[in-house]
Design a protein that fits this description.
The chain is an alpha+beta fold. It has two domains: 5-186 and 193-207, Glycoside hydrolase, family 65, N-terminal domain (Beta-galactosidase, Chain A, domain 5), CATH 2.70.98.40; 213-600, Alpha/alpha barrel (Glycosyltransferase). The protein is built from 16 helices and 26 strands. The strands form six sheets. It has a 15-stranded antiparallel beta sheet that branches. It is globular. 54% of the residues are buried. InterPro entries: 6-hairpin_glycosidase_sf, 6hp_glycosidase-like_sf, GH15-like, Trehalase-like_N. Residues 606-617 have a biased composition (Polar residues).
């Protein structure tokens, strides 16, 4: 049986990342990029599909773990009858995206502990056994275009198509293991002292969190939760391009044993706006600017070719295929790589893109000199596109519908274009845009609102609800005190909540083209907390926020969903959007002018800059090298 998602910790270096279980087994690793083939895929199968475990040779009496402060560096402590040992896992920073290392340091704390290492490299998502040869530093493994070196002073041997070692660790001993990736056409790189690399990695991350300078939040523990979420987002970013993957993994199911298994190792335009708010409110302007630049580069080109998602360097072809040799996480099939949703029409992304660029102009990022012409071009496409059905925010694989959220975000697109003209002096047919904006608004009120129940519905001619409607006041479509918005919040509370958490929709009502059910969506629950803050239900918002914090694993990480009946996290992990929701809700609860109010702001000032985006952190905005 697969380990619960909560059992895993995440390490990363802004090029790739790995999941390490509480027992010291690294069960997921893709090299050299987040979206590369996995060389450890036991997460989606069994040990024969690749893993790397370092743990006491006998049974440990107890294990505990933590992140070292201010960094994605994981420390696991094993206590045995003979002594105590720690395992420190991290990925050193690198300026060469073709050379990515994983370092594991075994440190003796007290007594003597007999340890065992087992390494089963399986390239191609667990399918390909590499050719392994001995070297004076350890082993060299090759499969097709990929090569890795395992460097360690410990004596290694082959056993059952694995590389194993047994060694003893005494008090004060530090034994390093470095797995170093390089393309086969390049020579192996020099692997230096693991302890020095640890010191350098910790120093860089601590400086990064210092420069971000988080504001003090109201409740004990909130600051730590926000910082861990920011570190997770940063570690999930791809440093060469600025893109942020939605999650580290693929095919972790939304329903155990079900078919709702998707590859999230890509970058969604939709995530951009709320991610920018999260970074900017925390003073992380380099990251916000890099994400904006990635988004503009990825979406650039003919407007009718704009996609809802891209690869981490802006790749457009994300062909979805299935991997039949992997049995899936808890037999959840199929295992998919690629994502067919990249070909869908989702009208809301136009609004997300326009809102993102408007948000950036109001902030210390300032205007982008080349963006406006592109924005005008996509608005020309949207003039007719908004009238048709689409697949919506949740990327349904059933028939297209007239989703209310999609129409609402089309309204946002024209609204932000009008504001850009009014506030920043950009040229454009503002009269036509006002007409379209008003037309969309009237249509949504006429066709998307159920007067009898006093709630907006998921799509025209439907009766089901949708958690995305919680953003209606936040994007400025209706003011928070509008009784139609308040009625929608109350309807979602009645009909879309399970055990105090929010479903994105009822599967039976939406007919999304897939079998099975799913758990509650964590970002939707954060959206409900945000809606509470906007309708003066601050106590309810704080209670819900504390509940959501309690669902994190012991390391502060969140997946995409939580299943109230199974009492466990589900979906891909760690999920960037869940952590974005955590950050923004924390700031919404702390500030009168938090991210939700900022996004809904209708100020006409030509030089509006939110005070929460100014100050020391902004003054310290500068480039930071990972050298």
């Amino acid at each position: 049986m697969s380990k619960p998602i909560e059992e895993y910790g995440f390490i990363g270096n802004m090029l790739s990342g790995a999941l390490v279980a509480r027992d010291g087994s690294m069960d997921w690793l893709c090299l050299p990029r987040f979206d590369s083939d996995a060389c450890f895929a036991a997460l989606l199968g069994a040990s024969k599909h690749g893993y790397w475990q370092i743990s006491p040779a006998g049974e440990s009496n107890r294990s505990s773990r933590r992140y070292l402060p201010h960094a994605p560096v994981l420390e696991t402590t094993f206590e045995t009858e003979g002594g105590i040992v720690t395992l420190v896992d991290f990925m050193p920073l690198s300026n060469d995206p073709e050379r990515v290392d994983v370092v594991r340091l075994v440190q003796g704390v007290s007594g003597k502990v007999r340890m065992r290492m087992e390494l089963a490299l399986r390239f191609g998502y667990g399918k390909t056994i590499p050719w392994v040869r001995r070297r004076d530093y350890g082993i060299h493994a090759v499969a097709g275009p990929d090569a890795v070196e395992l460097a360690t002073p410990v004596t290694l041997r082959g056993e059952d198509m694995r590389t194993v070692a047994e060694f003893e660790v005494g008090e004060g001993d530090v034994i390093p293991f470095t797995l170093a990736y390089h393309p086969l056409h390049r020579e192996p790189h020099f692997i230096d002292d693991g302890r020095k690399r640890l010191e350098h990695t910790l120093a860089w991350w601590r400086e990064w969190t210092r420069i971000c300078q988080l504001s003090e939040l109201e409740e004990p523990g909130w600051n730590d939760a926000v910082e861990r979420s920011l570190i997770t987002l940063k570690a999930l970013s791809y440093q060469p391009s600025g893109g942020i993957v939605a999650a580290l993994t693929t095919s972790l199911p939304e329903e155990l044993g079900g078919v709702r298994n998707w590859d999230y190792r890509y970058c969604w335009i939709r995530d951009a706006t709320l991610t920018l708010y999260a970074f900017m409110n925390a003073g992380c302007f380099d990251e916000a600017g890099a994400f904006r630049e990635w988004m503009l580069r990825a979406a650039a080109g003919a407007p009718d070719q704009m996609q809802i998602m891209y690869g981490i360097e802006g790749e457009r072809r994300l062909t979805e295929i299935e991997l039949p040799w992997l049995p899936g996480y808890e037999n959840s099939l199929p295992v998919r790589i690629g994502n067919g949703a990249h070909e869908q029409i989702q009208v809301d992304v136009f609004g997300e893109l326009m809102d993102t660029l408007y948000t950036a102009r109001k902030s210390q990022l300032g205007p982008h000199q080349e963006a406006w012409r592109f924005q005008q071009a996509i608005l020309s496409r949207l003039e007719s596109l908004w009238r048709g059905p689409d697949q919506g925010i949740w990327e349904v694989r059933g028939s297209p519908k007239h989703f209310v959220y999609s129409k609402m975000m089309a309204w946002v697109a024209f609204d932000r274009a009008i504001k850009a003209v009014e506030q920043f002096g950009f040229p454009g047919p503002v009269g036509k845009w006002r007409t379209l904006r008003d037309e969309i608004h009237r249509e949504v009120l006429a066709r998307g609102y159920d007067k009898e129940r006093n709630t907006f519905v998921q799509h025209y001619d439907g009766v089901g609800l949708d958690a995305s409607l919680l953003l209606m006041a936040e994007v400025g479509f209706l003011p928070p005190d509008d009784p139609r918005f308040r009625g929608t919040v109350e309807a979602i509370e009645r009909d879309l909540m399970e055990d105090g958490l929010v479903l994105r929709y009822r599967v039976g009502e939406t007919k999304d083209g897939l079998a099975g059910e799913e758990g509650t969506f964590l970002v939707c629950s954060f959206w409900l907390a945000d809606a509470y803050t906007m309708i003066d239900r601050g106590h309810d918002a704080a209670v819900l926020f504390e509940r959501l914090l309690s669902l994190r694993n012991d390391l502060g990480l969140l997946a995409e969903e939580y299943h109230p009946r199974h009492r466990r996290q589900l979906g891909n992990f760690p999920q960037a959007f869940s952590h974005v929701g955590l950050i923004n809700t924390a700031y919404n609860l702390r500030r009168i002018n938090g991210p939700a109010q900022q996004r809904a702001d209708r100020s006409a000032s030509p030089h509006a800059t939110h005070t929460s985006w100014t100050g020391t952190a902004g003054e310290q905005h500068r480039e930071r090298s990972i050298d």
